[in-house]
Design brief:
DUF1315 family protein
Length: 93
């Protein structure tokens, strides 16, 4: 279907991204052909790339809300804690 990530990224739109997510979820294309491990990874990269550019963080696949901290509810400004983002690692299966 696609030979490179760049080729795939050029044609992405919300409908295609939805189709790629579905193919990853089911492990096959709509016509029933099974995705190869390389195709799964390519699709996942394309979805992540598109969502990074077009979706709010809370709408992205794999979004994990920040942990609530005890001092967040107390409005304690003496202990100004910066919220650090945690990296999410893709694991190929």
């Amino acid at each position: 279907m696609f030979q490179s990530l760049d080729e795939l990224l050029q044609i992405l739109n919300p409908q295609i991204v939805g189709s790629l997510k579905r193919a990853i979820e089911l492990g096959k294309w709509p016509n029933g052909v099974v995705l190869s491990p390389q195709q799964k990874m390519l699709c996942a990269e394309a979805v992540a790339y598109w969502e990074q550019k077009h979706a709010a963080p809370v709408e992205r696949v794999g979004y994990v809300p920040p942990k609530a901290t005890p001092c967040a509810d107390k409005h304690d400004h003496d202990h100004d804690h910066d919220h650090e983002e945690e990296a999410v690692t893709w694991v190929a299966s």
